Amino acid sequence: MEAFYFHKAEAVWAVGREKEKNCELAFRAVLPAGDICLYLAASTVFRLWVNGRFLCAGPARTAHRYYCVDRIGLRDYLTEKENVVVIEVVGYNVNTYDTLDQSSFVTAEFIRDGEAVCCTGTGSCAVGQGDRLQAYDLKQRVRKVGRYSFQRAFVECYDLRAEKAGFYTETGWEGLGGYEQPIVAASGERFYRKRSVRVPEYERLPVQALEETGQAEFRPVLQEVLQSWEKKPGMNGYRRQEQEVHLADEVGGICPVPLSKGEGDMFPLVLKDGYGLYRFPFNATGFLRARIKCEEACIVYLLFDEILENGKLDCMRMSSVNCLRYRLDAGSHTTMAFAPYTMKYVQIVVKGSAVVEDMDMIQYRHPRTAYRVRLPEDQVLRRIYQAAEESYLSNAVDIFTDCPSRERAGWLCDSFFTARVEYVLTGESVLEKAFLENFLLPQYFEHLPGGMLPMCYPADHADGVFIPNWAMWFVLELEEYLDRSKDRELIERARQKVYGLAAYFNRFENEYGLLEGLDGWVFVEWSRANDEDVVQDVNFPTNMLYMRMLLAMASLYGDESLREKAKKLRETIRERSLKNGFFTDNERREGNVLINPGNCTEVCQYYAFFTGTADCEEDAGLWEVLNKDFGPQRKHTGKYPQVAYANAFIGNYLRIELLYREGQYQDVVDNIRGYFAAMAQRTGTLWEHDSPTASCNHGFASHVIYWLAGIYGKDM
Known about the structure:
The chain is 26% helix and 26% strand. It has 16 helices and 29 strands. Strands 11, 15, 16, 17, 18, 19, 20, 21 and 22 form a 9-stranded mixed beta sheet that branches. Strands 5-4-7-2-10-12 form a 6-stranded antiparallel beta sheet, with no helix packed on it. It has a 5-stranded mixed beta sheet with strand order 9-8-3-6-14, with no helix packed on it.
């Protein structure tokens, strides 16, 4: 990423509040018309408004101490008269997988004809008087609340007053006394970088249908809800006794009583202690908005999720609190979520009396891509493709993410697959480069052992958890990235990290050269393959991946000693793992001896062929069995019950990848249909698991596009 330097602007924040958790401030300026560009960086997240119109959100995420600067052209949004520009910033100051625990600040500079006409800081700009952004605390966000999930920061609860709408639109707004905050230069070391990744288009998506209406009963909660994050070591946030609103408790006390099945128009919807359940056309990601008119003060809850279970919405699914809470005074309000969320269904619940005038979403996803796959006239396959495309777009905004819902985290391994899709759809590897660079920028990773890479990043891992397997996928991705991009410079920058990782693993090699007793969370996939008695002590899928990592290193850096080491490791794995026609998953150490307990999983077979431990000629018998008797139909046929079933990620994906490599394209298409048709039909996105028990929109799942493009080709 290219370095960036501000002309005049300084990083600022309200006095004494840089470390305050869930602190929201608004920075306001009144600007003339003209060809003005805003350069903006912030911690933790921001959104921008011009004359009451939402323009964008950010920033693009990057490594600790590094901050991406957005360049935002304002000319087309400025009127001939004076214009109100508002930058809202929330500083979370908690450790998450989504955003970094770094002190709050904003650095902003409005440039016209090469000069700063307005900026943050204490120096003077070209205009002179009135050229400072003023900081306000509108006291709308309820700060002391619980977290949204273990992986993300806080739930959103607000106290909104209708009269504050003028703050965003009225040049002469004086506000209600006491909101302007003294600001000070923010402390801390910062390295600014130009945003290198694409900017979302922020398309509007209206709700599609009103599914159900009814009354809402608000019952006292019999048992307090202790969120999962409060049980985890090293997790930061407001503990239960500190919280002003216990949103999870309140949600648990809402009891909907259905009265009608979506009869009549969607809007306006008059509710008095009632609810309306709406549906979006697909499982979408973005900023949920609602226009609500209140005759008197009331509380509005917006509950949402990706699916319905037995016709009911469970907003606490996946241990996330999928709810926005607004305390509204009398008057007209437009609410908008500050953070992006994922949903196909949203249930608005009014405690009191209000009229819902409209509801939609501002989508937060990758802009439309340059290429599309040429598909046959096959509606099922086209529906799967559309679901895969949406799964990519919503997980490829500023980094590759696993899901846009409970985590929004940049996971390795997932990125190996999603990066292939970026290249298919854009012909470039812009997002992948930014993703990989984030792992290269820090000199070390706090809380992790030397040489190890984070399992997901940018993220804080205060609990010290890491997945050694996922660090191996980083090297495999570098190998493919070089082939796609020809970017040798980044590969050389990665050399130290890659060899540091190899040195870390060397410490765990046993007398046979196999990795044994790895520290951290040894992860193969969500199936029997990941049970504790299967992953330790010597886990063969992990060693197969290690062997493949060594081969990738040999290819990247011309290190023939690693190629020879990988060859010997392959022979050892085959000798010790291959039993009765199948590869077994592990050996356990009993005293000084390694014993093979005979654990055998489907995904282990796929790891063997994917990594080159097995070969379709050398292991022709096993390959034929996997071809004929495994796949989507095996749970119905029940064949080979001694081989534990694979799950969606990564077992089913490795299976289809192997069929694709062998040119068995009809089998690829049949497997795609068998695994993904039901997902595409139900949510319009592809899932983390082979059932809707977790995220129903996962980035790696878009890999379907890679196979279809290889089979059918693509067009501009």
